Amino acid sequence: MTDDTAAKEERIVAARMRLRDRFEARMADTPAMADEAPMGTGPANRHGMPQVPPGQHLAKGWPVLDLGRKPEVATGEWRLELAGAVARPVALTWDDLQALPQVDDVSDFHCVTTWSKLDVPWRGVRFADLAALAEPDDDADFVLCHGYDGYTTNVRLEEALKPDVLIAHTVYGEPLAREHGGPARMITPQLYAWKGAKWISKIEFLTENRLGFWEQRGYSDTAHPWRNDRYSCRPVDAARRPPDREFRRFEGKRPFILEAMTACCHGIPAR
């Protein structure tokens, strides 16, 4: 290890420790970790929630819907920009991403359109390691993730910094397929999957929350599966509502049902 490499590693480790000290208690207090009476069925998962959140069913396949655009990004051209409220903005190449610590993790995948996949084996880089590389400002509390297809989604840092949140490039031992967000996408196992941007191109650290694509169109800002937290009560600008799409709420705790789904869907069906 060269002196420069050792110094960089030491700086990243120190930044990780600062992030842990700042967000550890907030991460432990998030609904997917701390709810005393979460909704759902089945045995407890590794963080204590019922295996299948309310309103979900187990999918046999892996549905694919998007904004109608599936960008083809070669790894040689791929870049991931870490920007915004950070001390060290950087644009990572594919080789840079591969040079960071690689993590193998098995986690569950919960789509807001009511299907789930359990025990999905991913490989990638922890979001927390990328955050440590960029060193978020002390008042940064949110990120807005951007995709090569123009998609955006916002995530609170106490959720994004959890150890199972990855920038994933491999699934089931194979490179992540283009239709599922390859060459790399973000995964958020403790939130609905639309919070994980496919074809990720930029992570923008923010001091104030900024709603993403679906959040502007009536989807939940927080997206907690074990609270059935699919949709927001915020007024939705009619101009932002996807065309040919209707939503209907059922009584009680049943989820919203998508009455019509169009090709403009991005993260909701198959993040």
How would you sum up this structure, described in words?
It is globular and about 50 Å long. Helix 1 (3-28) crosses helix 4. Mean pLDDT is 86; it is low at 241-271. The chain has helices at residues 3-28, 31-34, 94-99, 127-134, 157-160, 267-270; strands at 41-44, 50-52, 57-58, 79-84, 90-93, 103-110, 115-126, 142-147, 152-156, 166-171, 174-175, 185-187, 200-206, 247-248, 257-258. It contains six helices and 15 strands. Helices cover 19% and strands 27% of the residues. The protein is of the alpha+beta class and 271 residues long. It has a single domain (3-270), classed as Sulfite Oxidase, Chain A, domain 2 (Alpha-Beta Complex). Strands 3, 6, 7, 10, 11 and 12 form a six-stranded mixed β-sheet that branches. A five-stranded mixed β-sheet has the order 5-4-13-8-9. Strand 6 and strand 7 (115-126) form a beta hairpin.
Arithmetic mean pLDDT: 86
How many distinct beta strands? 15
Distance between the termini: 38 Å
- Proportion of strand residues: 25-35%
What's the name of the CATH homologous superfamily?
Oxidoreductase, molybdopterin-binding domain
Name the shape in a single word.
Answer: globular
Low-confidence stretches: 241-271
